[in-house]
Design goal:
CATH architecture of the largest domain: 3-Layer(aba) Sandwich
Low-confidence stretches: 1-16, 18-23, 26-38, 121-127
CATH class of the largest domain: Alpha Beta
Order of helices and strands: HHHHHHHEHEEHHEEEHHHEHEEEH
CATH topology of the largest domain: Chemotaxis protein chec
Radius of gyration: 52 Å
CATH superfamily of the largest domain: CheC-like
Mean pLDDT: 74
Strand order of the largest sheet: 1-5-6-3-2-4
Oligomer: single chain
Largest sheet: 6 strands, antiparallel
Number of strands: 10
Length: 440
Protein backbone atom coordinates (compact mmCIF):
# COMPACT_ATOMS: atom_id res chain seq x y z
CA UNK A 1 0.00 0.00 0.00
CA UNK A 2 1.07 3.59 -0.67
CA UNK A 3 0.13 4.72 2.87
CA UNK A 4 -1.63 3.70 6.08
CA UNK A 5 -4.90 5.16 7.36
CA UNK A 6 -5.00 6.53 10.97
CA UNK A 7 -7.14 4.65 13.46
CA UNK A 8 -10.31 6.11 14.93
CA UNK A 9 -8.42 7.66 17.94
CA UNK A 10 -6.22 9.68 15.53
CA UNK A 11 -3.06 7.78 16.42
CA UNK A 12 -1.12 6.53 13.42
CA UNK A 13 -0.54 2.80 13.43
CA UNK A 14 2.80 1.17 13.93
CA UNK A 15 5.08 0.04 11.11
CA UNK A 16 3.62 -3.49 11.11
CA UNK A 17 0.03 -2.29 11.13
CA UNK A 18 0.04 -1.85 7.25
CA UNK A 19 0.04 -5.59 6.69
CA UNK A 20 -2.76 -6.01 9.14
CA UNK A 21 -4.80 -3.37 7.31
CA UNK A 22 -4.31 -5.19 4.02
CA UNK A 23 -5.48 -8.46 5.60
CA UNK A 24 -8.55 -6.73 6.98
CA UNK A 25 -9.33 -5.34 3.51
CA UNK A 26 -9.01 -8.77 1.86
CA UNK A 27 -11.21 -10.35 4.54
CA UNK A 28 -13.84 -7.71 4.00
CA UNK A 29 -13.87 -8.26 0.24
CA UNK A 30 -14.05 -12.03 0.65
CA UNK A 31 -17.11 -11.71 2.93
CA UNK A 32 -20.52 -12.85 1.56
CA UNK A 33 -22.98 -10.41 0.09
CA UNK A 34 -24.94 -10.11 3.30
CA UNK A 35 -21.85 -9.17 5.32
CA UNK A 36 -20.80 -5.67 6.42
CA UNK A 37 -18.63 -3.77 3.95
CA UNK A 38 -15.78 -1.65 5.30
CA UNK A 39 -16.70 1.98 5.88
CA UNK A 40 -14.88 4.39 3.60
CA UNK A 41 -13.81 7.74 4.98
CA UNK A 42 -12.91 10.89 3.12
CA UNK A 43 -9.25 11.00 2.15
CA UNK A 44 -8.79 7.33 3.01
CA UNK A 45 -6.22 5.62 0.74
CA UNK A 46 -8.39 2.52 0.87
CA UNK A 47 -10.34 3.88 -2.10
CA UNK A 48 -7.17 4.08 -4.24
CA UNK A 49 -6.32 0.46 -3.47
CA UNK A 50 -9.80 -0.69 -4.36
CA UNK A 51 -9.67 1.14 -7.73
CA UNK A 52 -6.42 -0.62 -8.62
CA UNK A 53 -7.85 -3.96 -7.62
CA UNK A 54 -10.99 -3.31 -9.68
CA UNK A 55 -8.94 -2.48 -12.78
CA UNK A 56 -7.16 -5.81 -12.44
CA UNK A 57 -10.48 -7.65 -12.26
CA UNK A 58 -11.77 -5.77 -15.32
CA UNK A 59 -9.00 -7.32 -17.46
CA UNK A 60 -10.21 -10.81 -16.63
CA UNK A 61 -13.83 -9.98 -17.38
CA UNK A 62 -15.09 -10.47 -13.82
CA UNK A 63 -14.80 -6.93 -12.54
CA UNK A 64 -18.42 -5.87 -13.00
CA UNK A 65 -20.04 -8.57 -10.88
CA UNK A 66 -17.35 -8.53 -8.19
CA UNK A 67 -17.42 -4.77 -7.79
CA UNK A 68 -21.21 -4.77 -7.47
CA UNK A 69 -21.04 -7.41 -4.74
CA UNK A 70 -18.28 -5.64 -2.82
CA UNK A 71 -20.03 -2.26 -2.86
CA UNK A 72 -22.65 -3.26 -0.29
CA UNK A 73 -25.34 -0.80 0.62
CA UNK A 74 -23.32 2.38 -0.02
CA UNK A 75 -23.34 2.00 -3.86
CA UNK A 76 -19.66 2.86 -4.29
CA UNK A 77 -19.02 -0.61 -5.85
CA UNK A 78 -21.45 0.00 -8.72
CA UNK A 79 -19.89 3.41 -9.46
CA UNK A 80 -16.40 1.90 -9.40
CA UNK A 81 -17.37 -0.92 -11.76
CA UNK A 82 -18.94 1.57 -14.20
CA UNK A 83 -15.76 3.67 -14.19
CA UNK A 84 -13.62 0.59 -14.77
CA UNK A 85 -15.84 -0.47 -17.68
CA UNK A 86 -15.49 2.92 -19.33
CA UNK A 87 -11.72 2.83 -18.94
CA UNK A 88 -11.56 -0.66 -20.46
CA UNK A 89 -13.69 0.44 -23.42
CA UNK A 90 -11.60 3.52 -24.20
CA UNK A 91 -8.17 1.86 -23.69
CA UNK A 92 -8.01 -1.55 -25.41
CA UNK A 93 -5.40 -3.99 -24.29
CA UNK A 94 -2.27 -4.46 -26.40
CA UNK A 95 -1.09 -8.07 -26.69
CA UNK A 96 2.57 -8.48 -27.52
CA UNK A 97 3.14 -11.23 -30.17
CA UNK A 98 6.70 -12.43 -30.41
CA UNK A 99 8.16 -12.09 -33.90
CA UNK A 100 9.15 -15.46 -35.49
CA UNK A 101 12.30 -15.20 -37.55
CA UNK A 102 11.89 -16.55 -41.16
CA UNK A 103 13.44 -19.92 -41.99
CA UNK A 104 16.37 -19.85 -44.40
CA UNK A 105 15.56 -20.91 -48.02
CA UNK A 106 16.44 -24.51 -48.91
CA UNK A 107 16.89 -26.03 -52.38
CA UNK A 108 15.29 -29.46 -52.88
CA UNK A 109 17.19 -32.18 -54.67
CA UNK A 110 15.79 -34.05 -57.65
CA UNK A 111 15.09 -37.12 -55.50
CA UNK A 112 13.04 -35.05 -53.04
CA UNK A 113 11.10 -33.44 -55.90
CA UNK A 114 10.34 -36.88 -57.39
CA UNK A 115 9.19 -38.09 -53.96
CA UNK A 116 6.87 -35.10 -53.49
CA UNK A 117 5.34 -35.53 -56.94
CA UNK A 118 4.98 -39.30 -56.57
CA UNK A 119 7.55 -40.13 -59.24
CA UNK A 120 9.43 -42.70 -57.18
CA UNK A 121 11.06 -45.84 -58.51
CA UNK A 122 7.67 -47.48 -58.69
CA UNK A 123 5.94 -44.67 -60.54
CA UNK A 124 3.11 -45.80 -62.72
CA UNK A 125 2.87 -49.34 -61.27
CA UNK A 126 1.08 -51.04 -58.39
CA UNK A 127 2.03 -49.51 -55.09
CA UNK A 128 1.17 -51.27 -51.83
CA UNK A 129 1.16 -47.95 -49.98
CA UNK A 130 -1.61 -46.51 -52.17
CA UNK A 131 -5.01 -46.05 -50.60
CA UNK A 132 -8.00 -48.15 -51.55
CA UNK A 133 -9.66 -45.48 -53.66
CA UNK A 134 -6.40 -44.87 -55.54
CA UNK A 135 -6.16 -48.55 -56.41
CA UNK A 136 -9.81 -48.64 -57.55
CA UNK A 137 -9.28 -45.59 -59.78
CA UNK A 138 -6.05 -47.05 -61.19
CA UNK A 139 -7.79 -50.33 -62.04
CA UNK A 140 -10.65 -48.49 -63.71
CA UNK A 141 -8.44 -46.36 -65.90
CA UNK A 142 -6.48 -49.15 -67.58
CA UNK A 143 -7.81 -52.65 -68.13
CA UNK A 144 -6.20 -54.58 -70.95
CA UNK A 145 -6.02 -58.22 -71.85
CA UNK A 146 -3.38 -60.29 -70.17
CA UNK A 147 -0.59 -61.77 -72.29
CA UNK A 148 0.64 -64.92 -70.50
CA UNK A 149 3.33 -65.76 -73.03
CA UNK A 150 4.85 -62.27 -72.72
CA UNK A 151 5.65 -62.95 -69.07
CA UNK A 152 7.56 -66.07 -70.14
CA UNK A 153 9.45 -63.99 -72.72
CA UNK A 154 10.51 -61.48 -70.06
CA UNK A 155 11.58 -64.27 -67.70
CA UNK A 156 13.73 -65.67 -70.46
CA UNK A 157 15.12 -62.17 -71.09
CA UNK A 158 16.18 -61.86 -67.44
CA UNK A 159 18.13 -65.11 -67.60
CA UNK A 160 19.85 -64.18 -70.86
CA UNK A 161 20.69 -60.66 -69.65
CA UNK A 162 22.28 -61.96 -66.46
CA UNK A 163 24.82 -63.83 -68.55
CA UNK A 164 25.40 -61.22 -71.27
CA UNK A 165 25.84 -58.32 -68.80
CA UNK A 166 28.39 -60.33 -66.83
CA UNK A 167 30.39 -60.69 -70.03
CA UNK A 168 29.82 -57.02 -70.91
CA UNK A 169 30.94 -55.57 -67.56
CA UNK A 170 33.32 -58.34 -66.38
CA UNK A 171 31.58 -58.05 -63.01
CA UNK A 172 29.04 -59.98 -61.00
CA UNK A 173 25.65 -58.82 -62.32
CA UNK A 174 22.24 -59.89 -61.06
CA UNK A 175 19.12 -59.05 -63.08
CA UNK A 176 15.66 -59.40 -61.57
CA UNK A 177 12.24 -58.40 -62.81
CA UNK A 178 10.27 -56.14 -60.47
CA UNK A 179 6.92 -56.17 -62.24
CA UNK A 180 4.99 -56.18 -65.51
CA UNK A 181 2.12 -53.71 -65.81
CA UNK A 182 -0.19 -52.28 -68.46
CA UNK A 183 -0.69 -48.53 -68.66
CA UNK A 184 -1.22 -45.67 -71.07
CA UNK A 185 1.82 -44.39 -72.89
CA UNK A 186 1.17 -40.76 -71.91
CA UNK A 187 0.85 -41.66 -68.21
CA UNK A 188 4.19 -43.44 -68.34
CA UNK A 189 6.01 -40.49 -69.92
CA UNK A 190 4.78 -38.27 -67.07
CA UNK A 191 6.18 -40.63 -64.42
CA UNK A 192 9.71 -41.13 -65.77
CA UNK A 193 12.15 -40.02 -63.03
CA UNK A 194 14.58 -37.56 -64.55
CA UNK A 195 17.41 -37.37 -65.37
CA UNK A 196 17.39 -40.55 -67.43
CA UNK A 197 18.29 -41.82 -70.88
CA UNK A 198 15.52 -42.97 -73.22
CA UNK A 199 16.50 -45.30 -76.05
CA UNK A 200 14.09 -45.67 -78.97
CA UNK A 201 14.41 -48.98 -80.85
CA UNK A 202 12.61 -50.49 -83.81
CA UNK A 203 11.24 -54.00 -84.30
CA UNK A 204 12.19 -54.64 -87.92
CA UNK A 205 9.79 -57.48 -88.77
CA UNK A 206 6.89 -55.84 -86.89
CA UNK A 207 7.59 -52.36 -88.32
CA UNK A 208 7.01 -50.57 -85.02
CA UNK A 209 8.91 -49.11 -82.08
CA UNK A 210 9.67 -49.67 -78.40
CA UNK A 211 11.37 -47.81 -75.57
CA UNK A 212 14.19 -48.60 -73.12
CA UNK A 213 14.63 -46.23 -70.14
CA UNK A 214 17.86 -46.31 -68.08
CA UNK A 215 17.70 -44.37 -64.82
CA UNK A 216 20.47 -42.16 -63.44
CA UNK A 217 21.68 -44.68 -60.85
CA UNK A 218 22.25 -47.39 -63.47
CA UNK A 219 23.95 -44.92 -65.81
CA UNK A 220 26.47 -43.95 -63.15
CA UNK A 221 27.00 -47.59 -62.14
CA UNK A 222 27.65 -48.76 -65.71
CA UNK A 223 30.01 -45.87 -66.43
CA UNK A 224 31.83 -46.48 -63.14
CA UNK A 225 32.23 -50.21 -63.81
CA UNK A 226 33.31 -49.88 -67.43
CA UNK A 227 35.84 -47.15 -66.63
CA UNK A 228 37.49 -49.08 -63.80
CA UNK A 229 35.78 -47.66 -60.71
CA UNK A 230 36.41 -49.19 -57.33
CA UNK A 231 34.00 -51.72 -55.96
CA UNK A 232 31.86 -50.86 -53.00
CA UNK A 233 31.26 -47.24 -53.98
CA UNK A 234 27.66 -46.05 -53.63
CA UNK A 235 25.77 -44.91 -56.70
CA UNK A 236 25.57 -41.18 -57.28
CA UNK A 237 22.80 -39.29 -59.03
CA UNK A 238 23.85 -37.41 -62.16
CA UNK A 239 21.88 -34.17 -62.18
CA UNK A 240 22.38 -30.53 -62.96
CA UNK A 241 24.40 -31.20 -66.12
CA UNK A 242 23.91 -32.85 -69.52
CA UNK A 243 25.26 -36.32 -70.16
CA UNK A 244 28.69 -36.45 -71.72
CA UNK A 245 29.54 -38.14 -74.99
CA UNK A 246 31.34 -40.96 -73.16
CA UNK A 247 28.30 -41.64 -70.96
CA UNK A 248 25.96 -41.67 -73.96
CA UNK A 249 28.28 -43.98 -75.89
CA UNK A 250 28.54 -46.49 -73.04
CA UNK A 251 24.77 -46.55 -72.49
CA UNK A 252 24.25 -47.05 -76.22
CA UNK A 253 26.49 -50.14 -76.07
CA UNK A 254 24.54 -51.37 -73.03
CA UNK A 255 21.19 -51.05 -74.79
CA UNK A 256 22.52 -52.85 -77.88
CA UNK A 257 23.34 -55.80 -75.63
CA UNK A 258 19.86 -55.65 -74.07
CA UNK A 259 18.14 -55.47 -77.48
CA UNK A 260 20.11 -58.46 -78.77
CA UNK A 261 19.01 -60.42 -75.69
CA UNK A 262 15.40 -59.33 -76.24
CA UNK A 263 15.54 -60.70 -79.80
CA UNK A 264 16.82 -64.01 -78.44
CA UNK A 265 14.03 -64.05 -75.81
CA UNK A 266 11.39 -63.70 -78.54
CA UNK A 267 13.20 -66.27 -80.72
CA UNK A 268 11.17 -69.39 -79.79
CA UNK A 269 7.94 -67.44 -80.32
CA UNK A 270 8.66 -65.32 -83.41
CA UNK A 271 11.67 -64.14 -85.34
CA UNK A 272 12.25 -60.42 -84.78
CA UNK A 273 15.26 -58.10 -84.77
CA UNK A 274 15.32 -55.07 -82.46
CA UNK A 275 17.53 -52.29 -83.80
CA UNK A 276 18.85 -49.24 -81.94
CA UNK A 277 17.22 -46.11 -83.40
CA UNK A 278 18.21 -43.07 -81.28
CA UNK A 279 18.95 -41.92 -77.74
CA UNK A 280 17.02 -39.11 -76.03
CA UNK A 281 17.10 -37.39 -72.64
CA UNK A 282 13.79 -35.51 -72.99
CA UNK A 283 10.63 -37.67 -72.78
CA UNK A 284 8.82 -35.41 -75.25
CA UNK A 285 11.27 -36.43 -77.99
CA UNK A 286 10.71 -40.15 -77.29
CA UNK A 287 7.00 -40.17 -78.19
CA UNK A 288 6.69 -43.42 -80.15
CA UNK A 289 2.93 -43.74 -79.69
CA UNK A 290 -0.13 -41.69 -78.92
CA UNK A 291 -0.57 -40.74 -75.24
CA UNK A 292 -3.85 -42.65 -74.97
CA UNK A 293 -2.50 -45.89 -76.47
CA UNK A 294 -1.92 -48.89 -74.25
CA UNK A 295 1.53 -50.30 -73.56
CA UNK A 296 3.23 -53.04 -71.56
CA UNK A 297 5.91 -51.93 -69.10
CA UNK A 298 8.51 -54.30 -67.62
CA UNK A 299 10.68 -52.99 -64.77
CA UNK A 300 13.99 -54.79 -64.26
CA UNK A 301 16.55 -54.28 -61.51
CA UNK A 302 20.24 -54.56 -62.41
CA UNK A 303 22.55 -55.02 -59.42
CA UNK A 304 26.35 -55.02 -59.62
CA UNK A 305 27.35 -55.83 -56.04
CA UNK A 306 26.70 -52.56 -54.16
CA UNK A 307 25.90 -50.62 -57.33
CA UNK A 308 23.04 -50.79 -59.77
CA UNK A 309 19.82 -49.23 -60.91
CA UNK A 310 16.61 -49.78 -62.82
CA UNK A 311 16.07 -50.53 -66.49
CA UNK A 312 12.55 -50.20 -67.89
CA UNK A 313 11.34 -51.78 -71.13
CA UNK A 314 8.13 -50.46 -72.72
CA UNK A 315 6.38 -52.12 -75.67
CA UNK A 316 3.15 -50.58 -77.03
CA UNK A 317 0.32 -52.99 -77.77
CA UNK A 318 0.48 -51.86 -81.39
CA UNK A 319 4.04 -53.19 -81.57
CA UNK A 320 2.96 -56.58 -80.22
CA UNK A 321 -0.10 -56.85 -82.48
CA UNK A 322 1.60 -59.10 -85.10
CA UNK A 323 2.26 -61.75 -82.43
CA UNK A 324 -0.78 -61.07 -80.25
CA UNK A 325 -2.33 -64.49 -80.88
CA UNK A 326 0.91 -66.19 -79.89
CA UNK A 327 1.25 -64.08 -76.73
CA UNK A 328 -2.28 -65.06 -75.63
CA UNK A 329 -1.24 -68.72 -75.36
CA UNK A 330 -0.85 -70.22 -71.93
CA UNK A 331 2.29 -72.12 -72.92
CA UNK A 332 4.64 -72.44 -75.86
CA UNK A 333 2.96 -74.06 -78.89
CA UNK A 334 -0.38 -74.43 -77.09
CA UNK A 335 -0.12 -78.22 -77.49
CA UNK A 336 -0.26 -81.01 -74.97
CA UNK A 337 2.54 -83.51 -74.67
CA UNK A 338 2.21 -86.59 -76.85
CA UNK A 339 0.75 -89.71 -75.23
CA UNK A 340 1.40 -92.74 -77.42
CA UNK A 341 -0.87 -95.01 -75.35
CA UNK A 342 -3.84 -92.67 -75.74
CA UNK A 343 -3.15 -92.22 -79.48
CA UNK A 344 -3.12 -96.00 -80.03
CA UNK A 345 -6.33 -96.48 -78.08
CA UNK A 346 -8.09 -93.68 -79.96
CA UNK A 347 -7.01 -95.10 -83.33
CA UNK A 348 -8.35 -98.57 -82.44
CA UNK A 349 -11.69 -97.17 -81.34
CA UNK A 350 -12.01 -95.10 -84.52
CA UNK A 351 -11.39 -98.17 -86.68
CA UNK A 352 -14.18 -100.06 -84.92
CA UNK A 353 -16.73 -97.29 -85.41
CA UNK A 354 -19.74 -98.36 -87.49
CA UNK A 355 -20.78 -96.04 -90.32
CA UNK A 356 -23.58 -96.22 -92.88
CA UNK A 357 -22.59 -96.76 -96.53
CA UNK A 358 -25.27 -95.83 -99.10
CA UNK A 359 -25.46 -97.06 -102.73
CA UNK A 360 -26.92 -94.23 -104.77
CA UNK A 361 -28.38 -95.08 -108.14
CA UNK A 362 -29.82 -91.64 -108.87
CA UNK A 363 -31.13 -88.53 -107.19
CA UNK A 364 -34.17 -86.49 -108.20
CA UNK A 365 -35.17 -82.98 -107.27
CA UNK A 366 -38.96 -82.60 -107.01
CA UNK A 367 -41.31 -79.82 -105.92
CA UNK A 368 -42.90 -80.24 -102.56
CA UNK A 369 -46.39 -80.36 -104.07
CA UNK A 370 -45.41 -83.42 -106.14
CA UNK A 371 -43.93 -85.14 -103.12
CA UNK A 372 -47.16 -84.55 -101.15
CA UNK A 373 -49.30 -85.97 -103.99
CA UNK A 374 -47.31 -89.23 -104.26
CA UNK A 375 -49.48 -92.33 -103.81
CA UNK A 376 -48.96 -96.06 -103.82
CA UNK A 377 -48.44 -97.25 -107.39
CA UNK A 378 -46.95 -93.99 -108.72
CA UNK A 379 -43.85 -94.27 -110.89
CA UNK A 380 -40.68 -92.17 -110.48
CA UNK A 381 -38.56 -92.06 -113.59
CA UNK A 382 -34.85 -92.11 -112.90
CA UNK A 383 -32.31 -90.29 -115.00
CA UNK A 384 -30.08 -93.32 -115.64
CA UNK A 385 -30.43 -96.38 -117.82
CA UNK A 386 -29.95 -100.09 -117.05
CA UNK A 387 -26.37 -100.97 -116.26
CA UNK A 388 -25.50 -97.38 -115.22
CA UNK A 389 -22.79 -97.09 -112.56
CA UNK A 390 -23.78 -96.38 -108.96
CA UNK A 391 -21.99 -94.43 -106.26
CA UNK A 392 -21.10 -95.50 -102.76
CA UNK A 393 -21.52 -92.64 -100.33
CA UNK A 394 -20.85 -92.25 -96.61
CA UNK A 395 -22.94 -89.40 -95.31
CA UNK A 396 -22.52 -86.61 -97.84
CA UNK A 397 -19.14 -87.78 -99.14
CA UNK A 398 -18.95 -89.91 -102.31
CA UNK A 399 -16.25 -92.54 -101.92
CA UNK A 400 -16.42 -95.05 -104.81
CA UNK A 401 -18.15 -95.81 -108.08
CA UNK A 402 -19.16 -99.32 -109.15
CA UNK A 403 -21.58 -101.68 -110.91
CA UNK A 404 -24.65 -103.34 -109.44
CA UNK A 405 -24.83 -107.09 -109.79
CA UNK A 406 -25.78 -110.26 -107.95
CA UNK A 407 -23.91 -112.65 -105.69
CA UNK A 408 -25.30 -115.69 -103.92
CA UNK A 409 -28.84 -114.58 -104.52
CA UNK A 410 -28.36 -111.02 -103.26
CA UNK A 411 -27.68 -107.68 -104.84
CA UNK A 412 -24.06 -106.65 -104.75
CA UNK A 413 -21.91 -103.75 -105.89
CA UNK A 414 -18.53 -104.15 -107.50
CA UNK A 415 -16.23 -101.14 -106.88
CA UNK A 416 -14.65 -99.98 -110.09
CA UNK A 417 -12.81 -96.82 -109.04
CA UNK A 418 -12.29 -94.45 -106.13
CA UNK A 419 -13.67 -90.94 -106.34
CA UNK A 420 -11.80 -87.82 -105.27
CA UNK A 421 -12.89 -86.53 -101.88
CA UNK A 422 -14.95 -83.35 -102.17
CA UNK A 423 -17.10 -81.41 -99.81
CA UNK A 424 -20.66 -82.53 -99.28
CA UNK A 425 -22.37 -79.80 -101.30
CA UNK A 426 -19.67 -79.63 -103.97
CA UNK A 427 -19.64 -83.39 -104.51
CA UNK A 428 -23.42 -83.55 -104.80
CA UNK A 429 -23.56 -80.76 -107.35
CA UNK A 430 -20.83 -82.33 -109.44
CA UNK A 431 -22.56 -85.70 -109.34
CA UNK A 432 -25.83 -84.21 -110.48
CA UNK A 433 -24.10 -82.26 -113.26
CA UNK A 434 -22.28 -85.36 -114.51
CA UNK A 435 -25.54 -87.40 -114.48
CA UNK A 436 -27.36 -84.68 -116.39
CA UNK A 437 -24.66 -84.49 -119.05
CA UNK A 438 -24.64 -88.28 -119.39
CA UNK A 439 -28.41 -88.39 -119.81
CA UNK A 440 -28.30 -85.70 -122.49
Amino acid sequence: MSGSAPDQDGVPPAAGDGDAAELDMAAAMAAPEGGDAPEAKPGDPFDDDMAAWGAALAESGDATDDMASVGGDDGWGEALSAAVGEAAATEPMAVAIPEIPPEPARVLSQAEIDSLLGFGDGGGGDDDSATGIEKVIARGLVSYERLPMLEIVFDRLVRIMSTSLRNFTSDNVEVSIEGITSLRFGDYLNTIPLPAMLVVFKAEQWDNYGLVVVDSALIYSVVDVLLGGRRGTTAMRIEGRPYTTIERGLIERLTEVVLADLSDAFGPLAEVDFRFERLEVNPRFAAISRPSNAAVLARMRVDMESRGGQLQLLLPYATLEPVRELLLQQFMGEKFGRDSIWETHLAEELRQTEVALDVVLDEQTMPLTDVVQLRIGDLITLGVGPGAPVRLRCGDTSLFEGQVGGRKGRLAVRIDRALPRHGAAGGLHRDLKERAEGAA
